[in-house]
Specification:
By secondary structure, the chain is an alpha+beta fold. It has 15 helices and 19 strands. The strands form 5 sheets. A 7-stranded mixed beta sheet has the order 8-7-6-9-10-13-11, with helices on both faces.
Length: 414
């Protein structure tokens, strides 16, 4: 944790500034806190392996006690949720290995962690829509500079798109410590992770950001009115102030992970400070599959919105957010080019024969829409793919990139 994060970090309970408690055990040097205790007038919070934990849940209290006792390794175990000694040792061995991948560490965390879902995240239908929306909206809002906040950002898959856009570095906030720990190491290095609970006041000073977003999580927030108010407080005063909520479920249409969803009208009512435009995800998905432009000029009827499984809401002071945004397949990888792990691959020498295989019937049911862009089978020119991996653009592979047969994943992801 960089000490300059304290400039925008605030206690979620009293709103006070925080500082390192130097009278207690801590490891800090060169402007960075690795482990320690930060405190305000009402509370103390642990910094565990460089991540401030800004809530008072049992794991946080246990981690704080371990830090105070000079045992930061036990604080990390507490925050990752590893009570079993053997499993904790497997996790510690995995993170100590320089060759460990995201997948290796997820598997070392045990079956309780939703790692399988994340391994396929970069090509699932909800992600490709959210990613296009984030790149279009944040790319417009932050074009001249500005800071982004990703609330309930999980393992940082969408935060990854913010890292090259946000100046200063974006903040990734989530309640689940293991996810943001993985994001910092693999998925979104460069983002600043903060562990906090979205059902309470956000631990940031008013007006610290220009852009705030929440993706694929808002339907699980109970205190929705306060949450939206906190998003607006986070961007208060910015002439580019933008609040984006991606993929929140519609109460009127059932989905496998429904959550505590509202109707489109119910979501719209939350935006008292600035009206939000509401988009049905089905039209945005069609835009992305077509691959030409994301049309944020559209204004859909209430009847159309009511039939959508999921919705996107945008409130922005930047008028050009609500334009058509061209969709271009990436030719340079932020990480490395890999064949989508949803495909079984047979190497025949000159060609790589890829065949679609879903990891489970549940996954196939929930994400069946990916069949609209993933082919059942496809041949990939092996030499062209190797050249792409080596950093040479291959226009002949653009269509496979657009259709998510080839995906840009973080280094050492799987």
């Amino acid at each position: 944790m960089h000490l300059d994060l304290l400039d925008i970090l605030r206690c979620p309970y009293c709103g006070g500034r925080l500082e390192l408690v130097t009278s207690l055990f801590h490891r800090a040097e060169a402007g960075t806190i690795t482990d320690g205790i930060i405190g305000c007038q009402c509370c103390v919070f642990p910094v565990v392996d460089g991540i401030p934990v800004m809530h008072l849940h049992p794991a946080s209290n246990a981690a704080r006690a371990h830090i105070e006792a000079g045992a930061p390794e036990l604080a990390l175990r507490a925050m990752v949720g590893l009570d079993d000694v053997a499993q904790a040792e497997r996790f510690e061995a995995a993170i100590a290995s320089p060759d460990a991948t995201y997948q290796d560490i997820v598997e070392a965390m045990g079956p309780g962690f939703e790692g399988g879902y994340f391994l396929y995240r970069f090509s699932d239908p909800t992600f490709i829509v959210a990613d296009a929306v984030v790149r279009s909206v944040a790319g417009t809002v932050l074009r001249g500079g500005g800071r982004a906040l990703d609330i309930c950002g999980g393992s940082g898959h969408l935060t990854r798109a913010l890292v090259p856009l946000s100046r200063p570095a974006p903040v990734l906030a989530d309640l689940f410590y293991p996810k943001i720990w993985l994001a910092r190491r693999f998925t979104a290095p460069g983002a600043l992770p903060v562990c906090c609970d979205g059902n309470f006041a956000l631990p940031f000073a008013r007006g610290s950001f220009d852009y705030a977003m929440c993706s694929d999580a808002f339907m699980f927030i109970w205190t929705k009115r306060e949450f939206v108010g906190e998003m607006f407080r986070a961007v208060d005063g910015s002439r580019h102030a933008t609040v984006l909520i991606n993929h929140t479920h519609n109460q009127l249409v059932w989905s496998p992970s429904h959550g505590n969803a509202l109707t489109p009208a119910g979501y719209r009512n939350l935006f008292e400070i600035a009206p939000a435009r509401v988009y049905g995800e089905s039209a945005l998905f069609a835009d992305v599959v077509a691959g030409e432009a994301l049309d944020l000029t559209r204004q859909e009827s209430d009847e159309t919105l009511d039939t959508n499984v999921a919705l996107t809401l945008i409130a922005s002071k930047v008028d050009s957010v609500f334009d058509r945004h061209p969709l271009q397949p990436a030719r340079a990888a932020a990480g490395e080019w890999r064949i989508n792990p949803l495909f079984d691959v047979a190497d025949t020498g000159a060609q790589l024969q890829a065949t679609l295989r879903f990891p489970s019937s549940d996954y196939e049911y929930e994400y069946s829409a990916c069949r609209e862009y993933l082919p059942e089978s496809v041949s990939i020119d092996a030499a062209s793919f190797r050249a792409l991996q080596a950093g040479t653009a291959q226009p002949a592979l653009d269509e496979l990139i657009r259709r998510k047969v080839l995906i840009d994943v973080p280094a050492h992801y799987f």
